[in-house]
Amino acid sequence: MTYRITLLGKQDRAAFASGSEPLDRYFRERATQDVRRRVASCFVAIDETEAAAGFYTIAATSLVLDKLPPEQAKRLPRYPVVPAVLLGRLAVASTHQGKRLGGALVADALLRATQSEIMAYAMVVEAKDEQAARFYEHLGFLRVGDDRLRLIRAL
């Protein structure tokens, strides 16, 4: 199956079901508001039938320099915080799970972050649980600090 990843538009989201009710509700009811308020960008994977197969959001954030692993922090200027991109939400419709779409969405987010004219040092994720954290580790993210569900990947 092939997918096209595009900015959130007028896609029908009513039937989207990923198995995570909070993510599904966000996509159906709040994503448009966040985009309109300029607090997050939302990108949607569209399948061959023009249905939403998955989505992710990204937004600006920052990382406290002292919380980064020493091997990463030593390469950065001594600012108290460094700019980053937050991969805020990520979900794949149940009918598209197991097809590597989640990894493709993360890859798309990383590509957009590195191609942006606004510089950021890393992408940050707040995994919802240990299984999600392992998914992000598989994609090259590293756990940081005391919060075992917070991971980063240098851009």
TrEMBL record:
Ranges where the N-acetyltransferase domain occurs: 1-155
InterPro entries from the UniProt entry: Acyl_CoA_acyltransferase (IPR016181), GNAT_dom (IPR000182)
Record carries keyword Acyltransferase: yes
Swiss-Prot/TrEMBL keywords: Acyltransferase, Repressor, Toxin-antitoxin system, Transferase
Record's catalysed reaction(s): glycyl-tRNA(Gly) + acetyl-CoA = N-acetylglycyl-tRNA(Gly) + CoA + H(+)
Protein name: GNAT family N-acetyltransferase
Species of origin: Sphingomonas oligophenolica
